[in-house]
What does this fold into?
Amino acid sequence: MKQKYEKIFQEFTFPSGVEVKNRIMVAPMTNYSSEESGEISERELAYYKERTGGVGTFITACAYVSKDGKGFPGQFSIDDDKFLPGLKKLAQTIQSNGTKAIIQIYHGGRQSPPQLLPDQQPVSASAIAAEREGAAVPREMTEEEINNTILAFGEATRRAIEAGFDGVEIHGANTYLLQQFFSPHSNRRDDKWGGSLENRMKFPLAIVDSVKKAVEEHAKAPFVVGYRISPEEGSNPGIQLEDTLQFVDKLADQGLDYLHVSVNHFWNGSFREKDKTESRIINIHEKIGDRVTVVGVGSLHTPDEVVEALETGVPFIALGRELLMEPKWMEKVQAGEEDQIRKTLSRHAQEELVIPDPLWDRLMNVKGWLPVED
Ligand SMILES: Cc1cc2nc3c(=O)[nH]c(=O)nc-3n(C[C@H](O)[C@H](O)[C@H](O)COP(=O)(O)O)c2cc1C
It folds into this structure.
């Protein structure tokens, strides 16, 4: 390995005590390839296996914590103990060669396609549809549903522990349910869960508490709790960077192991306020300092780009699409073969890259996701 890449290979110990061998995480990526029932499938285990070993930490695709939160066809479930055998297999598959396995836990809220839900009715903080053509109008959650969902995240965490995962990542980003409670667009409640910025933080913070309580009660070994956040959203009204800086200040006091900032491009500034051009990941890192470890992500591909991002002081980088195109990224950097790293997706490489059909079809058909070549 070239000396200039040493930063990538530094070990790290999270506050919970979990040790990781380097600074790269696989970003959570939905693969649409689980069984209809919510079971993990063999084809997705093969996809995970191909990308494990080199990276220090693997964050799985998001798993739904309750049936009313399923967000994708072919999404896997962590809402019932009957899924434990499959979840165990997934944890073990990732953990070969010392990669830590973190499962992302999720509720889709108003983004759930009605046809995937038991009563075809998405739920959310308020009965406000997303600003998207054809978006379904969700039903406002009752107090009981809110409390049950908070408990469901705790139960999902207990299952993650029983299945042998090294941690959970709470999916508070990308416009799903936790973000919907924080957002002034989707949360118009006038009870204790809505209204002021402080009230809109209550639901995600209650979920953090519920997850941490489950860890205290059930974990017999160190267990990571991470949180993923989106710094802004495009809707009007919508979450602004300033709101997020207040929220992360609060999150930094919750004893989390890391805060993962979900953006498409590591270096991009605010998309709502064009005069704020500094990277939002750096803004957040400056706000919370070392109180909680920041994970950055977004359009990073080469080891030079990753080192440049790490040099800002952000301690971890997650790679998403790059690891779809190049499962052996870490191994190549380690062997000094970084010039062999793939940066495009060949139409003929599906088998070699071990990408299941449902994910492959999307990668081929959704414009702008990946540079596809013949
Ligand atoms: C196919 C695909 C599936 C994704 N699924 C998830 C997901 O389940 N949970 C999540 O938080 N982000 C998800 N993302 C976002 C990625 O984690 C990541 O933030 C984004 O791709 C930007 O990073 P990259 O440029 O390294 O790919 C997904 C992205 C892709 C391309």
Remarks:
- The pocket of flavin mononucleotide is lined by residues 27-30, 61-62, 104, 171, 173-174, 228, 262, 264, 297-300, 319-322, 369 (CB under 6 Å).
- The chain has twelve helices and 15 strands.
- The mean pLDDT is 97.
- The radius of gyration is 19 Å.
